[in-house]
Automatic annotation (TrEMBL):
Signal sequence bounds: none
Subunit and partners: Monomer.
Family: Belongs to the class-I aminoacyl-tRNA synthetase family. Glutamate--tRNA ligase type 1 subfamily.
Cross-referenced CDD domains: GluRS_core
The enzyme's E.C. designation: 6.1.1.17
Organism: Sedimentitalea todarodis
Chief site of localization: cytoplasm
Function: Catalyzes the attachment of glutamate to tRNA(Glu) in a two-step reaction: glutamate is first activated by ATP to form Glu-AMP and then transferred to the acceptor end of tRNA(Glu).
Lineage: Bacteria, Pseudomonadati, Pseudomonadota, Alphaproteobacteria, Rhodobacterales
Protein name per Swiss-Prot or TrEMBL: Glutamate--tRNA ligase
Ligand binding (ATP): 242
Enzyme's top EC category: ligase
Record-level Gene Ontology MF annotations: glutamate-tRNA ligase activity
Catalyses which reaction(s): tRNA(Glu) + L-glutamate + ATP = L-glutamyl-tRNA(Glu) + AMP + diphosphate
'HIGH' region (motif): residue ranges: 11-21
């Protein structure tokens, strides 16, 4: 039996959870969860100047909203610094790394001279094979001994085999002169110690893989399966940036997109399963594989996100939708629902969720059940409440008092009333919408009546016709 799959998401806590990061986390989560494996979370907080607890909290909140749960504790890369340094010293002791005393000025002068002579500016340290007896009493970095001939092949599950000539690799610094480990070393040691089997990350890290493999090979560790996924572009084909709209995952929560719609859309952003556009979490977990990831950058398309979100709202359970709408209101810093409003919303959900693409759209349709009397009509609705409609509503009210409160009976009562008035039901709908909801666009009049109940319906009609 093969080893269990272990993936990880390793963001830097320097800001919110970027959409690109959210998709990377989702791909790792789907791959691990779909195979009964583990999905781990590591915060790469070695840049102390830019890493903040607030950013870490924002990343955790973004993952929580998306429903991407991780196994075990959140790992801090900074806290592993001593372990990272130990590995560098082990390689030094084994002769696979060396102390380099070259100063920044000497390295700059070397590059300047190489440029002038038209040679490679890749720094070749004179200390690589120096006799330790010649080492000065001066600050030094620890560099790994890179292979100097042959090739390194990155066997990538998305990009295919990528071959890099070893004479293009420099003796990478592992430990700085102040004894702190570099990011490249920390990543490899952490991934090894965490048992990561598959590294799924953005293709901007592809070249890093060749340099990181030097450490795996020098330590005799198993190289993980690589999968470098293309970046996300805006609709104009340029790298996704602020000019394309919101960049943080949680901004989409505050805009009123359901998490299931966001998961579905992000999964489709760069990965496909035949022609399937809409799918459930269960299907995504069952279908997701690395060979479905394309090599080209995906384009972020808000219209597609809205379309999928609407489909997910339509099939969601009413109680779950209510909870998620309450989360949206909090994220958007809007007035929360009262307990009574929440219950009314849930009762009405069956006639609200079919055509709403976002929660603001759904709540606009729900205005009739969230408002209290007196119902204040907006400008469009007020136009439907002229003197003629006042008279019609006054005549209609007694007939509704004796109607059986079922959809069929209400339809029959209203249709026969319209006929008696020499008109069609469509002409009655405008004034009824205005009276019941104060809006011109609402769920069907019959649904509103059923949700509001007989007494509330009659009270609203009486007020509007008064």
């Amino acid at each position: 039996m093969s080893d269990p799959v272990v993936t990880r998401f390793a963001p830097s806590p320097t800001g919110f959870l970027h959409i690109g990061g959210a998709r990377t986390a989702l791909f790792n989560w789907l791959y691990a969860r779909g195979r009964g494996g583990k999905f781990l979370l590591r915060i790469e907080d070695t840049d102390r100047a830019r890493s903040t607890p607030e950013a870490t909290a924002a990343i955790l909140q973004g993952l929580s909203w998306l429903g991407l749960d991780h196994d075990g504790e959140v790992i801090s890369q900074f806290e592993g610094a001593a372990r990272h340094a130990d590995v560098a010293h082990q390689l030094l002791a084994e002769g696979k790394a060396y102390k380099c005393f070259a100063t920044q000025d000497e390295i700059a002068a070397f590059r300047e001279a190489a440029r002038a002579e038209g040679k490679s500016t890749l720094f070749r340290s004179p200390w690589r094979d120096a006799d330790p007896a010649t080492h000065p009493d001066a600050p030094y970095v620890i560099r790994i001994k890179a292979p100097q001939d042959g090739t390194t092949v990155i066997r990538d599950q998305v990009q295919g085999d990528v071959t890099i000539r070893n004479d293009q690799l420099d003796d990478m610094v592992l430990l700085r002169a102040d004894g702190t480990p570099v990011y490249m070393l920390a990543v490899v040691v952490d991934d090894h110690d965490m048992g990561v089997t598959h590294v799924i990350r953005g293709d901007d890290h592809l070249n890093n893989a060749a340099r990181q493999m030097m450490i795996y090979d020098a330590m005799g560790w198993t190289v993980p399966v690589w999968a470098h996924i293309p970046l996300i572009h805006g609709p104009d084909g340029k790298k996704l940036s602020k000019r394309h709209g919101a960049l943080g995952a949680q901004e989409y929560q505050a805009m009123g997109y359901p998490a299931a719609g966001m998961r579905n859309y992000l999964a489709r952003l760069g990965w496909s399963h035949g022609d399937d556009e809409f799918f459930t979490d269960a299907q995504a977990l069952d279908w997701f594989d690395l060979d479905g990831i394309g090599k080209s950058p995906a384009r972020f398309d808000l219209k597609k996100l809205e379309n999928l979100s609407g489909q997910h709202i339509a099939v969601s359970e009413d109680a779950a939708l209510r909870r998620e709408i309450e989360g949206y209101l909090a994220a958007a810093q809007l007035e929360p629902l009262t307990a009574t409003q929440g219950e009314h919303l849930e009762t009405a959900m069956y006639c609200l969720k079919d055509r709403a693409r976002t929660f603001p759209e759904l709540l606009e349709k729900a205005h009739f059940v969230l408002t209290n009397r007196p119902v204040e009509p907006d400008e469009k609705a007020a136009k439907a409440l002229g003197s003629v409609s006042h008279g019609i509503l006054t005549e209609l009210t007694p007939q509704l008092q004796t109607a059986s409160w079922t959809r069929d009976d209400l339809e029959a009562t209203l249709n026969s009333f319209a006929e008696a008035q020499g008109t069609k039901f469509g002409k009655l709908a405008g004034p009824l919408r205005a009276a019941l909801a104060g809006r011109a666009v609402t769920p069907s009049v019959f649904d509103m009546m059923l949700v509001l109940g007989r007494q509330e319906t009659l009270d609203r009609l009486n007020e509007a016709s008064g």
